[in-house]
Amino acid sequence: MSMQNINVALIGNPNTGKTSVFNQLTGLNQQVGNYPGITVEKKMGFCKLPNNFKANILDLPGTYSLNASSIDENVVIELLLNKNDKLYPDVVLLITDVENLKRNLLLFTQIKDLEIPTILVINMSDRMKSKGISLDIPYLEEHLKTKIALVSSRKSLGINELKNLIVNYKSISTEPCLNASSIDVEYFDKLRATFPNQLLYKLWLVITQDVNFLNLERNEILNSFTKSHSDLKRLQQKETIKRYQFINDVLKNGLKIDTTIATDFRSKLDKVLTHKIWGYVIFFIILFAIFQSIFEWSKVPMDFIDSSFATFSALADENLPAGVLTNLISQGIIPGIGGILIFIPQIAFLFLFISILEESGYMSRVVFLMDKIMRKFGLSGKSVVPLISGTACAIPAIMATRNIENWKERLITILVTPFTTCSARLPVYAIIIGLVIPDERIFGILNMQGLTLMFLYLLGFSSAIFSAYLLNIILKVKGKSYFVVEMPNYKLPLFKNVAINVIEKTKSFVFGAGKIILAISIVLWFLASNGPGQNFENAEAIITQKNNVTSQKNGSENLENQINAYKLENSYIGILGKTIEPVIQPLGYDWKIGIAVISSFAAREVFVGTLATIYSVGGSDNENTIKNKMKAEINPITGEKVFNFASGISLLLFYAFAMQCASTLAITKKETNTWKWPIAQLIFMSSLAYFVALIAYQAFK
Ligand code: GDP
After folding, report:
1. Which of 162, 176, 221, 303 has the CB geometry, 3.0–4.6 Å to 113, for a possible disulfide?
2. DSSP string, 570-602
3. By alpha-carbon position, which residue is closest to atom 26 of ligand 1?
């Protein structure tokens, strides 16, 4: 009887043990060469199989998916598209690592859609016990429409069973796991109508990848189906999401990870960090330590920046010729830039900590830990990443919701993310806390100011979660999703990665938000230095006259202050602030704070800069810092400090809840494709802010 040859191709993600399986199958019967024309290594080997069969085994380069991004991946796609190639596999062995099944299965479902018999090889089975992993093989075989070989190439387990499966490859179903046309029904229907004899998924690969296809000219397909590059990218994303939805569904029943019976070191550490009590305690302590340090460590550099810019303003004022331009520089531009740079220490420290947590692998444990809680509120563990990124800025956070497959969970996450304390609130909090919360310690260690800051962060998170709970009940959107977490190994954070992240985030704040802040500072300066009508222009005469009538004793400096204050009151911005004063008075704010609150609806971080501008224009001594000026403000009606405990708390709460960010509204519109949701956000959050601030002020006053 002559030998029967079977062409076998080994395909899999890098590091799944493909080489080890190859070695197990072929032993020393290997040849190594290159693919024609390119430098990619081509490894071939053969192995004897039962019943007089023989396999030619081709070890293909490691690849994550069929969405080619490298020459290595192109090699795989071209081979699978070209049936005439003499290496075209009769059967594919798709190698996966039992610990990373979810990620590895993406490639599996793609290969299955090419209708090639594919055996799913689940490698590293020796680690299942120590990881507490169990698999329901019959269930997985049924739903993935394949045969599974559970092997350990390290311990030589399951290799003979694998060989038997190869011999019987003809009995393996070639039915796809997913229906390719479900990616975009209209598009794929058209494809099918034009090329009735071609496999849809092959056409799709030819369209999206820059690969050769012997039977069909790529241009021919593209000519009849022009889609823009971004359309194709969008379709590819859709494809990936559909595949993960499918994989999640299958793994939910086919894969169990019981961390309580796992025994290796990593698992032991996981057991503590994701423990149902200790996990939260540890997470809480870590958060607490982070916010304490942010406050303690930022104090010195922030004070330094604040006083430096006060000095620059004074220097500019003294040394430049008096005039509008000098005023613009010393009262508009310099305080404006100072108002941006002052946040750098806090933003940098926050991202230092966040990226250390991410790099070390701890953040994935937090996602896992939180998944159980989040589910109760209509969110998933995946919402934790946007919510935590929301501490930087709601804009990237809302964009990060794109990998939540379930639309309802995604919509809810988008809607509630702006409640988390973004870096733009931090400066507002920092300055108000510094003014109204005593710099004291409880029990000798707990800094009151740090504690307040932490409370505000927790308030942000809880509002987000509570709103999610409400939305989950109210919204009539259907959908389900499962979450399979794959936790990376713990590792020491790479200094370079952390540093790059901190620099990137700080830069994007300075140049992104900074531009708006500076522009608004200049507009404010203009509105504060000009006014309509007689009162503004004749301020000097009016005040001088008034003073002459009342008393002669006032010094010239005091006189100048009074003139400036009178001018501010009668400037454009003063008039605007005074107009809304009746509305905000019950919250404990005067018209100056009113101006800052209004301008904050463009972006919150403008608050401090606005007050800085207002007080620079309104006062004569530029040498004083913003904080001291705010501290000294007295309400002329009540005679009390403007920034007292009650108005401070009221302001903190107002900023915690109000939807004051034009860019966030824009991104919500973009991601939800309707103005309905951003408008709902604006109205709901801002009215909530008003009422909470009102209650707080009335209670503490
Ligand atoms: P490739 O990149 O897919 O070719 O993977 P390799 O064959 O180089 O293996 C990657 C890593 O996984 C190596 O450190 C192997 O020692 C390890 N490895 C491979 N197979 C097994 C296995 O069955 N069990 C265990 N525990 N480790 C394995």
Report:
1. 176
2. TSHHHHHHHHHHHHHGGGT--HHHHHHHHHTTT
3. 124
Most informative mutation of 11, 13, 15 for ligand 1 (most atoms within 8 A of CB): 15
State percent of the chain over pLDDT 70.
89
Same domain for 662 and 572? Answer: yes
Give the number of the atom of ligand 1 that is nearest the alpha carbon of residue 123. 23
Residues 530 and 468 in one domain: no
User: Of 89-93, 504-508, 617-621, 661-665, where does the model show the most confidence?
Assistant: 89-93
Distance CA 455, CA 608 (A): 21
The reply to whether 317 and 212 lie within a common domain is: no
Whole-number Å distance between alpha carbons of 310 and 314: 6
> What does the alpha-carbon distance between residue 407 and residue 486 come to, in Å, rounded to a whole number?
22
398 is a domain residue = yes
Domain containing residue 240? 180-258
| Chain mean pLDDT for the chain | 83
Tell me the HSE value of 242 on the side-chain side, using a 13 A CA sphere.
17
The confidence score (pLDDT) of residue 432 equals 92
Structure confidence by residue, pLDDT tens digits, 9-21: 999 988 898 988 9
CA distance 200 to 665: 39
- Site to probe by mutation for ligand 1, drawn from 20, 43, 156 as the one with most ligand atoms within 8 Å of Cβ, is 20
My answer on whether 636 and 519 are in the same domain is yes
125 Cα nearest atom in ligand 1: 23
Among 30, 94, 99, 154, say which to mutate for ligand 1: greatest number of ligand atoms within 8 Å of CB.
154
The total number of structural domains in the chain stands at 4
Residues 294 and 313 in one domain: yes
pLDDT classification of 482: cutoffs 50, 70, 90: very low
Q: Which residues line ligand 1 (CB under 6 A)?
A: 12, 14-20, 62, 123-124, 126-127, 152-154
